[in-house]
Amino acid sequence: MPIDQSTSQLGCEAALQSESHCILEARGLRKSFGPAAARVHALRGLDMRVSRGEFLAVMGPSGCGKSTLLHLLGLMATPDTGQVLIEGRDVGGLGEAHRARIRRRRIGFVFQRFNLLS
């Protein structure tokens, strides 16, 4: 999945110099689905960083891995390999209850379509 990382990487470097820090980082994220003969690789070694105060929009064509990426960053799924760090802490080894607490307190999504009211 092609992602323009120039803004994100520069944002983190500037944040580190100004005593702020990266609030979200992905290192080498890989996620695939299906049996070996028909495996679909949703993410292949994705690296990204987001610094405090930075906004991120994830855009791309259908099937390019956007939802998979958001599920991994939102701690709703686990990567095949790689790490997700929130405020510098690797959250990969945390149990589901702890991950749910982090989701409730630290993570928010704005969905393209939502059906909160019927």
Automatic annotation (TrEMBL):
Q: Where is the ABC transporter domain?
A: 43-116
Q: Name one Pfam family in it.
A: ABC_tran
A GO cellular component term found in this entry reads:
plasma membrane
The GO terms describing molecular function are:
ATP binding; ATP hydrolysis activity; transmembrane transporter activity
According to UniProt, the name of this protein is ABC transporter domain-containing protein
